[in-house]
């Protein structure tokens, strides 16, 4: 059985390896150039103690999930964007779902209120995973990205993590909750 743990800079090379085909071979990611290990390490470091990056592994890396700011304006502080990516041999085996479940546990303990995910269309597998974890479609950006010779829509999905508080609770650092 695989384990899930917090990602470190040492995981950047395998994260870059898992992510590369999503950039090069598919429209799942709207990036055009796959980030290398140094760039992934920079992204993990930039997430700091507020936005979790997780990895799943057994004898080898299986996948990763992370959260990032939903928007930069201060009023969005209680919302995050989320993503999961799995190696080909791990797809359809519950790895992505378990990564997301653990990510949501941490985000909830940190006092985040809403999680969002953008899904480049078509992508029935991603829709199925998100729907199974309580996400609901909240909108579509039509023709928002051009990738692999075609204009792509992105569906936006949302999932509550906690009841909103008035005023909002302060976001707790990851180090305080795990």
- Give me the Rg, rounded: 16 Å
Helix coverage percent: 25-40%
Mean pLDDT score, rounded? 97
DSSP strand tally:
7
Largest sheet: spatial strand order: 1-2-3-4-5-7-6
Distance between the termini: 21 Å
**Low-confidence segments, ≥5 residues, pLDDT <50?**
none
Q: What structural class do the secondary elements suggest? A: alpha+beta
Structure commentary:
This protein has helices at 12-24, 37-47, 95-109, 124-132, 174-177; strands at 3-6, 53-57, 61-69, 79-86, 114-120, 136-147, 150-160. The protein is an alpha+beta fold and 178 residues long. The chain has a 7-stranded mixed beta sheet with strand order 1-2-3-4-5-7-6, with helices on both faces. Helix 1 (12-24) packs across helix 2 (37-47). The longest helix is centred in the middle third of the chain and has 15 residues, at 95-109. The chain is globular. The two termini are 21 Å apart. The mean pLDDT is 97.
């Amino acid at each position: 059985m695989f384990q899930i743990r917090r990602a470190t800079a040492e995981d950047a090379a395998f994260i870059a390896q898992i992510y590369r085909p999503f950039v090069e071979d598919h429209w799942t990611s709207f990036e055009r150039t796959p980030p290398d290990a140094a760039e992934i390490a920079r992204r993990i470091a930039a997430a700091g103690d507020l936005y979790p990056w997780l990895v799943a592994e057994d004898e080898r890396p299986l996948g990763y999930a992370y959260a990032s700011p939903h928007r930069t304006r201060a009023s969005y502080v209680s919302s995050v964007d989320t993503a999961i990516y799995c190696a080909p041999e791990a797809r359809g085996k519950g790895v992505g779902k378990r990564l997301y479940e653990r990510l949501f546990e941490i985000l909830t303990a940190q006092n985040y209120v809403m999680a969002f995910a953008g899904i480049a269309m078509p992508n029935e597998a991603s829709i199925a995973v998100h729907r199974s974890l309580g996400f609901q479609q909240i909108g579509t950006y039509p023709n928002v990205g051009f990738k692999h010779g075609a204009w792509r829509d992105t569906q936006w999905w949302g999932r509550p993590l906690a009841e909103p508080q008035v005023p909002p609770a302060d976001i707790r650092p990851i180090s305080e909750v795990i």
